[in-house]
Amino acid sequence: MRVVVTGRDGQVVRALMERGPAGMADVVALGRPSLDLADPAGVAAVLAEAMPDVIVNAAAYTGVDKAEQEPEQAWAVNAAGAKAVAEAAASLGVPVIQISTDYVFDGSLDRPYREDDPTAPLGIYGQSKRAGEEAVAAATANHAILRTAWVYSPFGANFVKTMLRVAAGRDALGVVGDQIGCPTSALDMADAILRVARNLVERPDPALRGTFHMSGSGETSWAAFAEAIFQASRNAGGPTARVNPITTADYPTPARRPANSRLDCTKLARLHGAALPPWQDAVERCVIRLVKDSTP
Fold first, then answer.
1. Which residues contact 165 (CB under 8 A, 6 or more apart)?
2. Which alpha helices (DSSP H) does 38-172 contain, by range?
3. Domains of the chain, start order
4. Comparing C-alpha atoms, which of 283, 174, 184 is closest to residue 233?
5. Among 47, 53, 58, 59, CA closest to 3
6. Measured between alpha carbons, how far is 102 from 48 in angstroms, rounded to an integer?
7. Cα distance between the two ends of the chain
8. How, if at all, do strands 172-176 and 242-246 pair?
9. Which residues of the chain form beta strands (DSSP E)?
10. Which of 82, 52, 63, 261 is nearest to 157 (CA)?
11. Closest C-alpha to 140, from 91, 178, 78, 75
């Protein structure tokens, strides 16, 4: 199975490249300058040349706060770019997997979000990603939209790596404790994405198409997430710090965050047989790897 993924350096892309062989998949990453979702006109030709069996659109404008000042760029990549990828998949007759986000919700529910819950994004990033979902669904029925949340990995910039870096120079830090969600390992995501991809390629069942939620099992707050990171790091001989829980109001940002980012992933497990492991186990594995890699 030849999996062509948009993007080159993102967490999900790098995780797919690493996990591809175990999933019996040939993963080909296409990113700038050869493939630029901000320039939709050239997308179809580049994807066609790659001869995919399935396309994963993992490239995105992910600067949540920066998007408030750069809405045109966010919409160009997350909406128009996603549309171009899906249209290319349709013309090639192959399925497309669109990676989306919990930010399509406003976080006001008191339970994990299901796929059919109304969307109400709070900012430009979420709005542009929701528009991308709609564009993909309109372009081809042969799609799977995978919403995820709180992604981290040994690659790129993410919360786990930030906490370890900050702890190397500080004894204590304040972390928001009144936002809850599902930490999600990009490596675990990659395994699940490859399973979904194979299902789409091999099985025409319409039930396998549509929107699904994909995140780590369980739930926590950012503050408790940080504490788990530091406990794992402490056990591995890495940096650690004391966590002081603070409120969202104590840490204002240009873009509002959902207070509840929990995702109900039972549909994905039931239909695709893909369920991500408990977030605590995945975090421990990631931290151990990062600490080991940083040890001279």
1. none
2. 43-50, 71-75, 82-92, 124-139, 159-167
3. 2-149+185-215+262-276 (3.40.50.720)
4. 283
5. 53
6. 30
7. 38
8. parallel
9. 2-6, 26-30, 54-57, 96-101, 143-148, 151-152, 172-176, 180-181, 184-185, 210-213, 220-221, 242-246
10. 63
11. 91
Q: How far apart are CA 183 and CA 279, in angstroms?
A: 6
Q: Degrees (nearest 5) of the Cα angle 226, 266, 149?
A: 35
Could you give the CA distance from residue 48 to residue 19 in angstroms, rounded to a whole number?
Answer: 24
CB contact at 8 A, 214 and 147: yes
Task: Let me know: does 277 contact 217? Beta carbons within 8 Å.
Answer: yes
pLDDT averaged over consecutive 10-residue blocks of the chain (296 residues)?
Answer: 95 96 94 89 93 97 94 96 97 98 97 98 97 98 98 96 94 96 98 98 97 97 98 96 96 94 98 96 96 82
Contact criterion met (CB below 8 Å) for 217 and 269? no
Contact assessment for residue 248 and residue 179, using Cβ atoms and an 8 Å cutoff: yes
State the amino acid at position 5 in one-letter form. Answer: V
Instruction: Give residues with Cβ within 8 angstroms of 150, minimum separation 6.
Output: 102, 159, 181, 182, 183, 184, 215, 216, 225, 261
User: Could you tell me the strand order of the sheet in which 96-101 lies?
Assistant: 26-30, 2-6, 54-57, 96-101, 143-148, 210-213
Who contacts 53 (Cβ-Cβ below 8 Å, separation ≥6)?
A: 1, 2, 3, 94, 197, 201
- Contact, 93 vs 52, CB < 8 A? no
Question: Tokens at residue 216, please?
Answer: 């780590």
Q: What pLDDT does residue 296 have?
A: 67
Active site residues: 125
